[in-house]
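Lab notebook, design round three. We kept the backbone fixed and only want residue identities now. Task for the bench partner: fill in a sequence for the structure below.
Input structure tokens:
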């Protein structure tokens, strides 16, 4: 199956994702000679453009979204020469014949990237099938949203499965394309140090924070009614939980890794209706300041009243031997104080302190895995403060710091989509999400939503630029835990 394709077909080619991420990523791969020679990229969308118009569009996207050091005139020209375009109304099967003609001979393999509105999945798959663009050498990459609950996600997956078997279906979670996310595997399974304490005996709790400073960013049509739980927790945050909590896979491949991740996702303790108010907190940003600027609240930005949550915090459990009794505190939100994605592993205290009688306080070790914007792994350890200790021993928490940016300075950081697009083109499924994972994720999320509906939970207001509703502080403080800030 790992076989590079000769053609790429991009649906939604004139959309936001394409401009910001896909075209710059494909250019990056092209510029470094990583795309198969002769690979053509056909874009399609509703907009009425021809090849020249799409190349202009792509050039403008590169101008805007590529960093200056990556721009190179001859590489840009070479990249644009790979691009073609065919306008298409995907809701109508008729246009797919012309698309097929445009793509041309696919005997060398075709990879399709589909980022489309949910209601277009059915017609698009039918159109591809009718046009003969679904054979054994065609694989498909799917961008979210793939449904908005278990039921609708099954429907989407069933539609896709009619034409593409699971081993040719590549579901994207762009967090898995991030270098630091993959680094979790290196840290856990490339070192002997952590694994013996990576369990309920060694770990007190885990915190995962994905905070953003942005608000709606013009995505109201998608975001409103979806909310933070579906937008961020269902996919990115649960994938982080899975990577942190999974058993060691026997080998580094798509089957072994995803087998272990899905076991974790299926072990998530369901949150029952009666528990939603004690185990979850939702919020919605109000007026406030973000990065030094006055910003409007969610409703004002949206132009109407809404109950969509822009913040969620959850106390979760993975019910298995390894994690018995270890809470996983998750929180994510928009318009928060900082942009930060971080995993904090709080280890247990030493069983007995020999320093107590000498007046020294001990703090338990903490491992901080910062995914963005900085990339580092920091282990907080106790060290003796220099001195003659006449008034008692003084110990202080100090960081053992591994800055990945510093350690790997000079190695270019790739956009997550560069990695994922290349894996799609080459047919490596390891960093894509399997259907059973997605369904386990939705099952857990749906129960929370049902609980919110039953309990009539409405998001609590929080000021833009804060760390969310105060109730999210209470969620952890009740257990004697403080969010790592
Ligand atoms: C997307 C969400 O999946 O992830 C967005 O739809 C969110 O709402 C984005 O802003 C965050 O991604 P990143 O890579 O900036 O952390």
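Proposed sequence:
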């Amino acid at each position: 199956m790992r076989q590079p394709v000769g053609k790429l077909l991009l649906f939604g080619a004139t959309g936001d994702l394409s401009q910001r991420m896909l075209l710059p990523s494909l250019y990056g791969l092209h510029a470094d000679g990583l795309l198969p020679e002769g690979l053509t990229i056909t874009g399609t969308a509703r907009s009425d453009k021809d090849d020249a118009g799409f190349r202009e569009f792509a050039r403008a996207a590169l101008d805007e979204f590529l960093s200056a050091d990556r721009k190179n005139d001859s590489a840009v020209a070479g990249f644009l020469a790979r691009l073609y375009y065919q306008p298409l109304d995907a809701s109508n099967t008729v246009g797919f014949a012309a698309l097929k003609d445009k793509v041309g001979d696919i005997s060398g393999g075709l990879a399709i990237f589909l980022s489309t509105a949910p209601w277009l999945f059915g017609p698009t798959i039918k159109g591809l099938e009718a046009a003969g663009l679904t054979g054994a050498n065609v694989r498909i990459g799917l961008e979210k949203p793939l449904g908005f609950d278990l039921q609708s996600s099954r429907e989407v997956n069933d539609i896709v499965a009619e034409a593409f078997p699971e081993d040719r279906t590549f579901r994207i979670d762009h967090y898995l394309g991030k270098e630091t996310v993959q680094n979790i595997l290196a840290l856990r399974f490339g070192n002997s140090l952590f694994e013996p304490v990576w369990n309920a005996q060694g770990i007190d709790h885990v915190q995962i924070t994905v905070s953003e400073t942005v608000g709606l960013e013009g995505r109201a049509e998608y975001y409103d009614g979806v909310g933070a739980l579906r937008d961020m927790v269902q996919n990115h945050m649960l994938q982080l939980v899975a990577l942190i909590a999974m058993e060691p896979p026997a080998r580094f491949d798509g089957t072994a890794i995803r087998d272990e991740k899905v076991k974790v996702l299926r072990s998530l303790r369901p949150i029952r209706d009666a528990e939603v108010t004690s185990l979850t907190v939702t919020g919605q940003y109000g007026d406030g300041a973000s990065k030094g600027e006055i910003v409007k609240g969610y409703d004002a930005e949206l132009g109407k009243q809404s109950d969509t949550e822009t913040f969620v915090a959850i106390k979760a459990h993975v019910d298995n031997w390894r994690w018995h009794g270890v809470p996983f505190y998750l929180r994510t939100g928009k318009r928060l104080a900082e942009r930060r994605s971080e995993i904090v592993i709080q280890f247990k205290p030493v069983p007995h302190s020999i320093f107590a009688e000498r007046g020294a306080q001990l703090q338990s070790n903490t491992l901080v895995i910062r995914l963005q914007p900085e990339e580092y792994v920091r282990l907080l350890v106790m060290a003796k403060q220099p001195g003659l200790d006449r008034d008692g021993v003084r110990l202080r928490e100090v960081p053992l710091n591994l800055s990945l940016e510093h350690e790997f300075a000079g190695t270019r950081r790739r956009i997550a989509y560069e990695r994922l697009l290349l894996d799609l083109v080459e047919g490596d499924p390891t960093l894509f999400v399997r259907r059973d994972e997605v369904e386990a994720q939705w099952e857990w999320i749906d129960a929370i939503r049902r609980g919110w509906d039953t309990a009539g939970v409405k998001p609590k207001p929080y000021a833009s630029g804060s760390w969310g509703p105060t109730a999210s502080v209470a969620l952890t403080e009740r257990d004697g835990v403080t969010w790592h800030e």
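Keep this in mind before ordering anything: The mean pLDDT is 96.
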